[in-house]
Design goal:
Elements: H1 3-34, H2 40-70, E1 79-81, H3 83-100, E2 104-109, E3 116-118, H4 120-137, E4 142-152, E5 157-165, H5 189-193, H6 199-209, E6 213-218, E7 225-232, E8 250-254, H7 258-270, E9 274-275, E10 281-285, E11 303-308, H8 316-321, E12 327-329, H9 334-346, E13 373-377, H10 381-393, E14 397-401, H11 404-413, E15 418-422, H12 430-439, E16 446-450, H13 455-463, E17 468-471, H14 476-487
Helix pairs in contact: 1-2, 1-10, 2-6, 3-4, 4-6, 11-12
Length: about 500
């Protein structure tokens, strides 16, 4: 790398931080404002400002990624990738946006698609761009994310990452143009949907950099578009085998949405189960209830498990009272599906599931962390206010520090359950402060807060001794997941470098 290359790379990193930091503050403060009492006009203004800020942050991210790809500065960090966790995470991250539009979002990973060695962050970026694009342009129906094996050798399988939607589709004459810089299906798309047309250009460059390809076509089984990214990856040796818990069990899926149907049946098959009209357990979609009915009917034959969105949590008790043997939250998780089916089969006839097997899904159980002592290390006052407010709303007791040295001193005089540490601060930065804390033998969980999404930043924080990382602006659900993981001493484990 020449000195000019190094200066250019440093400029990109600096601009990433400097542009994202004020945007994170704007987005975070608007998020807090939206949770206060506002009249109708004020709420509309706040939502419009938040939407504009989100679009601007997306544009900044796309521009920086595109510039790095053009300059050949994007490095890949292969590590074992849990495909189910990857796809599930993307689907669940996009589900609030999809559900707000009245869309379904579903996912599945084929049983013959093994976990692989790849840069998980870059794979997630490709999937998030493709699926996010599908949610943006789809008005009715839904989006499905699937991973299938499509060839390759035993040690180097070729995988297809497929995103289907029920949107307007992409006409043949535009299918090449949309992958070009600032390319759109229609010239009005940039103004109507708030994008510069860089997202798919970034996807194509990432696909090429991973030795693969991406293309768009008509969805083969109905109206809409199918985006397909294919690439070959080495198998992740030693990866745990996905449990086939449903071997010998028959399940039926009762829904009017084809994506929910296809994904649920694929998850049943991936768990070793069979799809049958004469099934012992029936998955009943609440969204497919009869017109005018507040609840779906219990199945005549077999034990019923109702499928609900997180916002429909209040119906869980009513469905249990109506004789259903459990519930599942959409988008479905394969492991949860298998566990609920087995629990329903083990329950007494006509009795809902109780006990350990009936533990509520974390997406419908509000996280509560009363008494959790948190040290928040953040030099930006706006960022500190946002993070401290979110943490306090979760019941945490929060102490703040404005520099790495203040954090080190605070951890000498007091004990904390968890530390949130900004990566970039004047004087002693986050990694340096973490090394000083670890050198004293203090193993308090430390989570990095970073405005950058670069792989080298994530790697740097973990190599410094931090346990995990969150990207700013902080999202409430991501924060709750981090709190749950790192305050539960039985299950916490440092993420892989």
């Amino acid at each position: 790398m020449t000195s000019d290359d190094g200066a250019e790379n440093q400029f990109l990193r600096l601009m990433s931080h400097e542009m994202r930091t004020p945007l994170n503050g704007v987005i975070g403060m608007l998020g807090l404002l939206q949770r206060t009492r506002l009249d109708g006009a004020q709420r509309a203004y706040a939502e419009a400002a938040r939407s504009s800020a989100d679009h601007l942050l997306g544009l900044v991210n796309d521009l920086l990624d595109y510039a790095r790809l053009e300059a050949g500065k994007l490095e890949f960090d292969p590590a074992p990738v849990d495909l189910e966790a990857l796809v599930r995470g993307v689907a669940e991250l996009l589900s609030p946006r999809a559900h707000d539009k009245g869309l379904e979002i579903a996912w599945s990973v084929a049983s013959d698609a093994p976990d692989v060695m790849a840069d998980e962050g870059r794979l997630r970026q490709v999937l998030f761009n493709l699926a996010g694009n599908a949610v943006k342009f789809t008005e009715t129906g839904g989006v499905r994310i699937a991973v299938e094996r499509c060839g390759g050798r035993g040690s180097q399988p070729k995988l297809a990452f497929i995103v289907d939607d029920t949107g307007p589709g992409v006409p043949p004459e535009a299918r090449e143009r949309i992958f070009e810089e600032f390319g759109h299906v229609d010239a009005s798309d940039a103004s109507r949907f708030g994008g510069a047309g860089l997202g798919l250009a970034v996807v194509r460059k990432l696909a090429k950099a991973m030795g693969g390809s991406v293309k768009v076509m008509d969805r083969p089984d109905g109206p809409g578009a199918r985006f397909r990214f294919e690439a070959a990856f080495p198998v992740a040796l030693g990866a745990p085998t996905r449990e086939a818990l449903l071997v010998g069990q028959s399940i039926r899926v009762a829904t009017l949405n084809p994506f929910v149907q296809t994904a649920a049946e694929a998850q049943v098959t991936a768990s070793g189960g069979q799809i049958s009209d004469k099934a012992s357990v029936v998955l009943v979609d609440h969204a497919s209830r009869e017109a005018g009915q507040s609840m779906a009917r219990a199945p005549q034959g077999g034990r019923g498990i109702v499928l609900l969105k997180p916002s429909e949590r209040d119906l869980i008790a009513r469905y249990r009272s109506a004789g259903f043997h459990g519930y599942l939250i959409k988008p479905l998780r394969r492991a949860s599906l298998a566990e609920r089916v087995l629990a329903a089969l083990g329950a007494q006839p006509g009795r809902p599931v109780t006990g350990a097997s009936g533990v509520d899904d974390d997406r419908v159980t509000p996280a509560r962390f009363a008494g959790t002592r948190v040290l928040l290390v953040e030099d930006n006052p706006v960022g500190a206010l946002l993070a401290a407010t979110l943490l306090k709303r979760e019941g945490c007791t929060v102490e703040t520090a404005a520099s790495g040295q203040e954090a080190v001193d605070a951890m000498k005089r007091a004990r904390y359950d968890l530390v949130f540490m900004d990566m970039r601060m004047p004087g002693m930065d986050g990694p340096t402060a973490t090394r000083a804390v670890r050198a004293r033998g203090d193993q308090t969980p430390i989570i990095a807060l970073t405005a950058n999404a670069f792989a080298e930043d994530r790697k740097a924080c973990l190599e410094a001794g931090m346990d995990d990382h969150l990207t700013k602006p902080l999202e409430l659900e991501a924060l709750r997941i981090a709190l749950a993981r790192w305050t539960n001493r039985e299950v916490r484990a440092k993420v892989a470098v």
